[in-house]
Design the sequence.
């Protein structure tokens, strides 16, 4: 068997082609990463932009119907759990990478640039960072919104009960009456007279009610608190 000679020139060309292909692949990867970085930057700028938009050009057949919500449904949840539904520009927490990836996927699938982001979250998250769960929405039109992404931990299971008094003035008044009634029962018998009577009980109750109501009113006015229906979509701290 006769061995053929090694064509050095041919070998040089093969190495050169291989290196060119490797450089080409690296350049392509760099370009993809560059474009991806530019997209993320653009999305991040849109999330903090105050330019409002009421609709986006989604392909409805590609949307998940479970993630479509009307403004009335969002409002009801915000009032029940004392949450706010505001433009993402007012959100002071950090938008996670998972949300940006979700947005990029949606934009690619629908061949559009999403605008007018909204976030549902506790009031504190619009002033400082917290661990509760924000929900990111994008407007569809006609007061409908698409749930893009949720992150963080779930709300406390008792949050709805804890914020129930702030739902309206009737609930708050009921709580004040209940607390006053309980505190009145804690007053020892015979503290103000030798013989307890119904009249004395109601006098003490009225006194306790005034004390508790005064504290509640002072707390509400001093900290600029308001009822849930008044703040769910307000961008003002003391709304």
Sequence:
């Amino acid at each position: 068997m006769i061995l053929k000679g090694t064509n050095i020139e041919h070998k040089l060309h093969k190495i050169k082609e291989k290196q060119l292909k490797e450089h080409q692949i690296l350049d392509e990867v760099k370009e993809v990463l560059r474009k991806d970085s530019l997209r993320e930057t653009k999305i991040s700028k849109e999330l903090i932009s105050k330019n409002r938009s009421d609709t986006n050009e989604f392909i409805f057949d590609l949307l998940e119907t479970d993630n479509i919500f009307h403004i009335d449904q969002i409002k009801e949840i915000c009032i029940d759990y004392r949450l706010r539904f505001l433009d993402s520009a007012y959100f002071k927490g950090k938008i996670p990478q998972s949300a940006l990836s979700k947005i990029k996927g949606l934009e690619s699938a629908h061949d559009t640039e999403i605008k007018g982001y909204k976030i549902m979250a506790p009031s504190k998250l619009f002033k400082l960072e917290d661990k509760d769960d924000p929900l990111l929405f994008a407007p569809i039109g006609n007061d409908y919104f698409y749930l893009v992404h949720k992150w963080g931990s779930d709300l406390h299971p008792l949050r709805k009960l804890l914020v129930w008094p702030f739902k309206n003035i009737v609930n708050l008044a009921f709580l004040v009456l209940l607390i006053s009634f309980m505190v009145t029962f804690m007053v020892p018998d015979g503290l103000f007279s030798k013989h307890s009577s119904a009249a004395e009980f109601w006098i003490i109750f009225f006194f306790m009610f005034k004390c508790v109501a005064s504290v509640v009113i002072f707390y509400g006015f001093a900290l600029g608190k308001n009822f849930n229906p008044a703040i769910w979509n307000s961008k003002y701290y003391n709304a």
